[in-house]
Amino acid sequence: MDMNRLRDHMVEHHVVRRGIRDQSVIRAMRIVPREKFVDPGFEEFAYEDAPLSIGEGQTISQPFIVALMIEKAHLGAGDKVLEVGTGSGYASALISRIARHVYTIERHERLALQARERFEKLGYRNLDVRVGDGSKGWTNAAPFDAIIVSAGAPEVPAGLKEQLDLGGRLIIPVGRSDEQRLKRITRTGASTFEEEDLGGVLFVPLIGEDAWTTTHPMYT
Ligand code: SAM
Hints:
This protein is about 25% helix and about 25% strand. It has helices spanning about 5-15, 25-30, 65-70, 90-95, 110-120, 160; strands at about 50-55, 60, 80-85, 100-105, 125-130, 145-150, 165-175, 180-185, 195-200.
């Protein structure tokens, strides 16, 4: 199977034709091999525009949504970025091809270790992976130019807003699973933030101290 051809087709049909314009995002999607971020045996489905199971009840997100979130974060080449919810590592890998450095945090140890191994195999060196609760952010590495949260929170965690640099952007799905909205929060001053609604989405829950509890009825 010619993965390069499938990848180009996916980018053309599910990313460019659906309105993604940021050339750095399109370029990253053309070079990061999504087939290396899915479970063995699922490579042939890697270039469909759909989420896929990665174990632990989690998913690698749909390519279009990943592209949209990264585009909306307005990343620059010098940016330091936090991704909360490493999962397979695919979104972090894309971000690492655009920004200066990526910090990525995942609550499931197996997924975090697997993602780290994938980055090493691909020779992607500008990423740090940690196991932990990303609803609290990554204090030691803050402030960030952008934070992308790849799981849905009940509300915007205050700690994540605080870890944005001035002008920094936080992209986060917020709300119950049946009414989740993608938000962009931009830090406009020491204690001022601007919030925009970017549309409806459906993500697995962000589970942590400043997020849903594992027993929340919307997600059990
Ligand atoms: N970005 C990932 C990718 O490209 O494969 C997909 C992320 S998946 C939709 C959401 C991930 O968020 C899951 O792997 C889940 O375990 C993780 N997660 C949920 N709550 C978290 C938390 N508080 N801290 C860190 N990771 C969390």
